[in-house]
Design the sequence.
């Protein structure tokens, strides 16, 4: 997954109503060859631009993604 941005570099996104949320998206930052030393567990989702989706986060997510070839 990759963070969407506008041409000027600002983030592209939207607010999702809480009633439409099903499960949290367990994202893991993609570090590349070497992780940036400024990243911590508290700011890594803020400063990273590419992510992996952790499909092993819980059995329901794993089963859903396995059955739907995601």
Sequence:
């Amino acid at each position: 997954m990759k963070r969407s941005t506008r041409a000027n570099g600002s983030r592209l996104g939207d607010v999702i109503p809480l009633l439409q949320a099903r499960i949290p998206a367990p994202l893991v930052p993609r570090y590349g060859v070497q992780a940036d030393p400024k990243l911590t567990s508290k700011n890594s989702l803020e400063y990273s631009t590419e992510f992996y989706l952790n499909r092993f986060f819980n059995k329901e997510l794993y089963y859903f993604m396995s059955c739907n070839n995601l």
Q: What stands out?
A: The first helix runs from residue 44 to 47. Residues 3 and 21 are 19 Å apart (CA to CA). The beta strands are 27-29, 51-53.
